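PROTEIN DESIGN WORKSHEET
SECTION A - STRUCTURE
LENGTH: 201
TOKENS:
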């Protein structure tokens, strides 16, 4: 249906097909804050990023160790299920490929875990292969606590609820385990280009 109605608007259709804005989204210039709970205060001496679950030797990094890992600068468009899109956001962080280097695992899924208890689930092959980062700078500044600082997951090809703020671990698993929003009505996958917004989309 959406495709047909778009086809009737000859002029706009060109805009739509060349657009970087997924269906149903509009571009914002500000950076809205969306959190299901309060911003957790994380003492840096207690911050520890952990990869556990389906892995022979769990890995972890203190903040100092994490900051010493190779970083990447990423410029990406981000899309929230509440329909805002922000273009060309600039981040610095560590690629999941770097964190997973040399890991042999039978896992096909991960659950990202955050301070405060938020979780979100992802297929492992959608966060590896240069598709996701743990970001700790935004626009050249340390990531603001409201936006997930000290560090958040950044998975720009999926709706932003998959980009867990205050992330401090990934649990590898053979079975998919829906996270916070995925058990509260949001789609299990969340591809903005397919409008996978809610359960059943
Ligand atoms: N830990 C945690 N991460 C979270 C959330 C949350 O409530 N807690 N909200 C998600 C949702 S629904 C969105 S849209 C984005 C919002 O990120 P922002 O506040 O930086 O815009 O964070 C995602 N990550
Ligand atoms: Mo969201």
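SECTION B - SEQUENCE
RESIDUE ASSIGNMENT:
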């Amino acid at each position: 249906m959406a495709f047909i109605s778009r086809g009737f608007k000859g002029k706009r259709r060109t805009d739509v097909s060349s657009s970087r804005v997924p269906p149903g989204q509009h571009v914002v210039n500000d950076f809205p804050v969306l959190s299901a709970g309060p911003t957790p205060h994380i003492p840096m001496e207690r911050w520890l990023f952990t990869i556990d679950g389906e892995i022979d030797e769990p890995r972890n990094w203190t903040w100092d160790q994490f900051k010493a890992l190779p970083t990447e600068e990423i410029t990406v468009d981000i899309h929230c299920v509440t329909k805002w899109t922000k273009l060309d956001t600039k981040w610095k962080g560590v690629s999941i490929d770097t964190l997973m280097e040399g890991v042999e695992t039978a896992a096909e899924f991960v659950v990202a875990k955050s301070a405060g208890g938020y979780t979100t689930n992802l297929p492992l092959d959608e966060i590896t292969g240069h598709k996701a980062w743990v970001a700790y700078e935004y626009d050249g500044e340390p990531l603001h606590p409201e936006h997930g600082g000290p560090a958040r997951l950044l998975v720009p090809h999926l709706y932003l609820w998959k980009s867990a703020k205050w992330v401090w671990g990934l649990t590898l698993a053979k079975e998919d385990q829906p996270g916070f929003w995925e058990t509260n009505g949001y789609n299990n996958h969340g591809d903005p280009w397919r409008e996978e917004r809610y359960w059943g989309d």
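SECTION C - NOTES
Residues 44-194 form a domain with the Sulfite Oxidase; Chain A, domain 2 fold (CATH 3.90.420.10).
Confidence is low (pLDDT under 50) at residues 1-18.
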